[in-house]
Specification:
Blueprint lengths: L3 H19 L12 H4 L8 E10 L5 E3 L4 E6 L2 H11 L4 E3 L17 E4 L5 E7 L2 E11 L8 E11 L5 E7 L2
Parallel strand pairs: 1-9
Antiparallel strand pairs: 1-2, 1-6, 3-5, 3-7, 4-8, 7-8
Length: 173
């Protein structure tokens, strides 16, 4: 049986571990959201982005982004800072490491979304010239597991306006 002092230290240790594990990472946004910098997303262009998003499971079987929201986000100082923090300098973050980061309330209105089909394919029509992040999540829960596998991933696509179609593959490590 634990003494009162040992129980108190055990409870403090458990509280500290819980606080560390449950803490939402905080950071000072390096750039304020500027609607003017992202406004090109609302212009009508002539380019179609056709993409396919998938990850490979540990057994090397591809897992498509079935029915996932795919986001098209203008590259701006604000979005670059967000992506740098969210992905920690990489283009993929495992499911268990995905941080929760609050966004400027106006930010979402300067993005476009679509849903991937049953093969992990997605399309954005009438895309204006510009540099964009394309981001999604691919998650699955192996039978018998409590936790999801997969993660969030992104890449960058440049639209010059000279091309009618840009084919794009979004995949992780």
């Amino acid at each position: 049986m634990l003494s009162r002092s040992m129980r108190r230290h055990s409870l403090r240790g458990a509280a500290l571990i819980t606080a560390v594990l449950c803490a939402t990472p905080s950071y000072a946004q390096e750039a304020d959201f500027d609607p003017k910098a992202a406004a090109f997303i609302h212009k009508e262009g002539k380019t179609t982005i056709e993409g396919h998003a998938f990850l490979r499971r540990p057994d090397n079987v591809p897992e498509n982004a079935v029915g996932q929201v795919v986001r098209l986000i203008p590259v701006t100082p604000y979005s670059e800072a967000r992506f740098a923090h969210f992905y920690n300098g990489k283009k993929y973050v495992p499911a268990w490491q995905i941080p929760k980061i609050e966004a400027d309330p106006e930010y979402a209105s300067f993005t476009r979304t679509t849903t991937s089909d049953s093969n992990g394919r997605f399309t954005f029509d009438n895309v204006a010239p510009g540099k964009y992040f394309v981001a999604t999540q691919i998650m699955w829960r192996p039978k018998g597991n409590l936790f999801s596998e997969g993660g969030a991933l992104y890449d960058i696509v440049n639209v010059t306006g000279k091309e009618k179609k840009v084919k794009f593959v979004l995949t992780g490590p």
